Each structure stands twice: as C-alpha cells, then as structure tokens.
Amino acid sequence: EFLPCPSQTLCTKATMQTVRAADTNEVVKLIFRESDNDRKVTLQLEKKLFDYVNQEVFRDNNGTALLEFDKELSVFKDRLCELDISFPPSYPYSEDSSQGKQYMNTRCPAWCDRVLMSPSAKELILRSESEEKVVTYDHIGPSVCMGDHKPVFLAFRIAPGAGKPHARVHKCCVVQ
C-alpha cells in the first residue's frame, strides 16, 4: 500500500492531496496539508520520499506512539520475540557526519535493527535471580553518525548453569 499507516497518525489534522501520473493514473505522490495554518505541507510521500515536517515525533518518548505500527515480528508470532523497544527508530539516519540525530527523508523511520530470540531465551534473560540483574536493549550512538542504521544491542547477565535445571555449578565452569 502506498500510504503507510503511521502517516494517518502523523497527519490526523491534515487533508490529503493525491497526485497521479497523467499516462497511467497511478498514484505517484501524496501531499498532506494542515487544515489551518495556511495549509502548510506537513508530509509528502513519493516512491523514495518520506518528508515529514517534524522529525521530533520520532524521538519524543523514543517514538513509542508509533510502535503500534511495527508489525515486523507478526510473521514469527510464538516462535521469535524480543524485549520491549525503548529506543527511537533505528533507520534511516542521515549519513552526513554533522547530523547524527537527523533522519533521511527517504523512508518513514522504523525499527529495522532488532535482537530476536526464542520465548525460552527471553524467559531466561528476564528471570530475576538477583537484584543486580540488569537487562539493556538499546541503540548505539544516538548522537553520532554511523551510517543510515543505528546498531542495537542487548546486554544482560546470566548465572552459570541458568537454563540447565540439573547442572552443578563449580567455581569456574558448569558440569552436566
């Protein structure tokens, strides 16, 4: 579908103009204009263009308002999962080294970089065995240019033998 679901959320108070190719009548551009404010253009969509006037919406509260449109894992339901995302969309960032926080206007920002695991691995990671246990799922270099993606990481501590119910724990290793 040409119109991505997030555009409906991003442009709730806007009117949409459709531009079609003269020869094929195919939709080639969508222009969203504010209903008031001199009909200012808030979003333009084309084949390789996603030009939204306020990129802060993708960083405010880490873009969580748009997570409802993230359907990447739906095809892996019950087989693969991930921890809750609490970082802004990881793609597409500007590759200009002076604009580490700026998104490119080529696509709607999205969480394209992920750490996926089986449900049993997730349960093992989240199992609280001590108060010191810290799990971090985040992106790297929020203000630094690293190409068009911001890498993501998952950091956690796990006790020796965790997940192996009959393992005997020794000072240096796990023995089955």
TrEMBL record:
Q: What is its EC number?
A: 3.1.3.56
Ranges for domain Inositol polyphosphate-related phosphatase come to: 1-164
Task: Note the InterPro entries from the entry.
Answer: Endo/exonu/phosph_ase_sf, INPP5A, IPPc
Kindly give the SMART domains that the UniProt entry links to this protein. IPPc
The GO terms this record gives for MF are:
inositol-polyphosphate 5-phosphatase activity
Q: Which GO terms describe its biological process?
A: phosphatidylinositol dephosphorylation
Task: Provide the alphabetized UniProt keywords.
Answer: Hydrolase
Does the keyword Hydrolase belong to this entry?
Answer: yes
Top-level EC class: hydrolase
Gene3D superfamilies the record matches? Endonuclease/exonuclease/phosphatase (3.60.10.10)
Q: Which domain of life is it from?
A: Eukaryota
Q: Which Pfam families did the record assign?
A: Exo_endo_phos2 (PF22669)
Q: Which PANTHER family match?
A: INOSITOL POLYPHOSPHATE-5-PHOSPHATASE A, TYPE I INOSITOL-1,4,5-TRISPHOSPHATE 5-PHOSPHATASE
Say which family it is in: Belongs to the inositol 1,4,5-trisphosphate 5-phosphatase type I family.
Tell me what this protein is called: inositol-polyphosphate 5-phosphatase
Q: Which organism does this record belong to? A: Camelus dromedarius
Q: Give the lineage.
A: Eukaryota, Metazoa, Chordata, Craniata, Vertebrata
